[in-house]
């Protein structure tokens, strides 16, 4: 994966949302619209979704960033942002609340939703 931005807790706190200092309201602090994918390499659906996310990150790199959080490596973040199933995707426009998408969305709908919300 070359275009997906793998992100750990430290980068997440500094680039996406500092939930330690502001736990009550998700406030996106990034300067570029983004999508944050919480996924697990142990999930068949996540593994199948990953190549599409890589393509999306490559094609849309001028418009928005695509971040990837490995929930197996970041269990604390997983507890804070993921329910029972992965992937969970946060679509984070500038100056608005994020839209949260569950594992049930198909790739084409995800591309369309992200484009609509992040490229205004």
Overview of this protein structure:
The chain is built from four helices and five strands. It is of the alpha/beta class and 120 residues long. A five-stranded mixed β-sheet has the order 1-3-2-4-5, sandwiched between helices.
Main sheet summary: 5 strands, mixed
**Integer count of domains:** 1
Broad CATH class: Alpha Beta
Q: Would you report the number of β strands?
A: 5
What distance lies between the first and last C-alpha atoms, to the nearest angstrom?
27 Å
Count of individual helical segments: 4
> Mean of residue pLDDT?
91
Radius of gyration: 13 Å
Order of strands across the main sheet: 1-3-2-4-5
Gist of the model:
With 120 residues, the protein is of the alpha/beta class. Helices cover 35% and strands 18% of the residues. It is built from four helices and five strands.
Question: What features would you highlight for this structure?
Answer:
alpha/beta, Glutaredoxin, 5-stranded mixed beta sheet, 4 helices, globular
Q: What's the SSE blueprint?
A:
Elements: E1 5-6, H1 9-15, E2 34-39, H2 44-59, E3 65-70, H3 75-81, E4 88-92, E5 99-101, H4 107-118
Parallel strand pairs: 1-3, 2-3
Antiparallel strand pairs: 2-4, 4-5
